[in-house]
Amino acid sequence: MSKLGQIGAKLHRGEVSYDFIGHRKFWFSLSIALVVISLGGLFVRGLALGVEFKGGVEYDAAVKVTSSTVDDFSNAVKATNAKGLGDPVVTTINNTKVRVQTKPLSQDDVGRVRAAIAKEAGIPAEQVTSQQIGASWGQQIADKAILALIVFLVLVFAVIWLYFREAKASMAAIIALIHDVTITVGVYALVGFDVTPATVIGVLTILGYSLYDTVVVFDKVRENTRGITGSNRFTYSDATNLAVNQTVVRSINTTVTALLPVGSILVVGTVVLGTGPLKDLSLALFVGIAVGAYSSIFIAPSLLAVFKEREPGMQALNKRVSAKKAQTASAAAAPVAVATAGAAPRSAVPSSGVQDTTRADTSRKADRATGSAPAPSSRPMKATAAGRPQPTRKPRSKRGK
Length: 401
Prior knowledge:
Layout: H1 3-13, H2 24-44, E1 48-49, H3 51-54, E2 56-62, H4 69-78, E3 89-93, E4 97-102, H5 107-121, E5 129-133, H6 135-164, H7 167-191, E6 194-195, H8 197-224, H9 236-273, H10 277-308, H11 312-342, H12 352-370, E7 381-383, E8 389-391
Helix pairs in contact: 1-9, 2-7, 4-5, 6-7, 6-8, 7-8, 7-10, 8-9, 8-10, 9-10
């Protein structure tokens, strides 16, 4: 078994553990700081919306794609010096087509950009298709994305409530999801990546991933806290912390396994391709998976413990557990105190017992020297075949009478 597997087994048995719930103030503070930084980047820098959301012009041209196609077409479009051109987005499709997206342009600039693309592709300008994307269409996409997010959160709240029969579990999961979305969107604002429909798909995907990880932890919490109010061994926080320790290795393994391929896609989309939906999708997935694993371990269980321990039954349980721990500690300290106080020095031990034993030994030696028999015992004796006197025994039926 590997070292990680051994650690996981010890965590599951409770032999070693980390106090996730006890350090919740630190993790809450860290999450608040991350959320504040994300919101600051969102409101100060804003999101770099793609053509699909803010409108623009999209060109398609048939071309044989090479390793320098993206840079060649990007430089060719920039050389037109069209007004309000900005930084064009160049993507390749199936090694046979190139797509160029720009900001909204005037009719004359649209023609100049089409001619530059046709010249670079080596085809007539009539074979380069272009279409204007209005901002209203992008607004419709944004509205539908927000609506999909709201519907998703409502359904998540209802499903978790029905599954766990606990509204507080739904509240903790929803807060963790909002935490994940806020940090992911903040990273997009700070990095400056374009927000495209692929970004929306990535955000909705990581919400499902984060929710799955949180539900696994909550299911273990439910298993550990079943019938907990009928005992006085553990508090709800203790049982929740044990559940997190029992599932943390699984969460780490799942997260690392998911981040490795997504990280590879992110490197390829950013370094090799330079732009396109692959980059937008992979960044949302990478950030969302990492933040989702963090929230499912450090945030959601701690929130659930905070919500549950406000209940009167859990507060009474905390008092009973605290009283039992205090009683156990005092009982463990009592024998030590008694043993220390009851130990007397050797000189203080009375010598009467020693003198009596010595006197009896001296008497027996004197009898053997004079040949006299010892004083008869008050207990009646009877002779046996060997001639040795044996004490007479009463029958069992008369014993005790």
